[in-house]
Write a structure and sequence with these properties.
heterodimer, A: about 110 residues, mainly beta, seven-stranded mixed sheet, globular, B: about 110 residues, six-stranded mixed sheet, 12 strands
């Protein structure tokens, strides 16, 4: 089945230690998104790629970076995680019409910062 | 500014009872409307979406939603709730005029009692 895969499902890191979260998709979608979702809150868009074009949200901290080496993969890099970065990180994809297409979400990576 | 309001943080219904989850939006453009469901520790799954046409849309798992432009609402309904429907439900709105980004409501947690 075509899907959005996130690895790892659970990640534990230490305060200030860089961490990378991975997302891959078999849907061949041209748009990939990263969301941060804190406990009992709505997902918050961090940034997205439309093909190779990177689009950062204005309020996304500089601590968060992203890479998309090819259509299938997208990475979220947190350079110096703080305690406030502990959250669920969701990857999503959409194709064709951009944002107005349905977004398909992966299962998420739960990040714990010690 | 665009906003999505889900007035009910928690709702508890008995198994077999009907369900209605409310969603109101404030948008200065023609909206695209979505309902997603999230089980604990999981990603978001699309239940249904409205782009245009018939204002009553059918989704998966027996859910439906009705778009009412005059009330700026997109309420989710199910005639008979099953215990497996217990989850968190998010309403989301997008519009091409606002860069097609999705804005999520804060979510409604559904509890089902037997």
């Amino acid at each position: 089945d075509a899907m959005v895969i996130q690895n790892p499902r659970y990640q534990v890191t230490q305060f200030g230690k860089p961490v990378t979260l991975s997302c891959s998709q078999t849907l061949n979608h041209n748009v990939m998104y990263w969301y941060q979702q804190k406990s009992s809150q709505a997902p918050k868009l961090l940034f997205h790629y439309y093909d190779k074009d990177f689009n950062n949200e204005a309020d996304t901290p500089d601590n968060f970076q992203s890479r998309r080496p090819n259509t299938s993969f997208c990475f979220l890099d947190i350079r110096s995680p703080g305690l406030g970065d502990a959250a669920m990180y969701l990857c999503a994809t959409s194709g064709g019409q951009g944002h107005t297409d349905t977004q398909y979400f992966g299962p998420g990576t739960r990040l714990t910062v010690l | 500014a665009q906003s999505v309001t889900q007035p009910d943080i928690h709702i508890t219904v008995s198994e077999g009872a009907s369900l209605e989850l409310r969603c109101n939006y404030s948008y200065g453009a023609t909206p695209y409307l979505f309902w997603y469901v999230q089980s604990p520790g999981q990603g978001l799954q699309l239940l249904l979406k409205y782009f245009s046409g018939d204002t009553l849309v059918q989704g998966i798992k027996g859910f439906e939603a009705e778009f009412k432009r005059s009330q700026s609402s997109f309420n989710l309904r199910k005639p008979s709730v099953h215990w497996s429907d217990a989850a968190e439900y998010f309403c989301a709105v997008g519009a091409r005029e606002y860069g097609n980004k999705l804005v999520f409501g804060a979510g409604t947690i559904l509890r089902v009692k037997s």
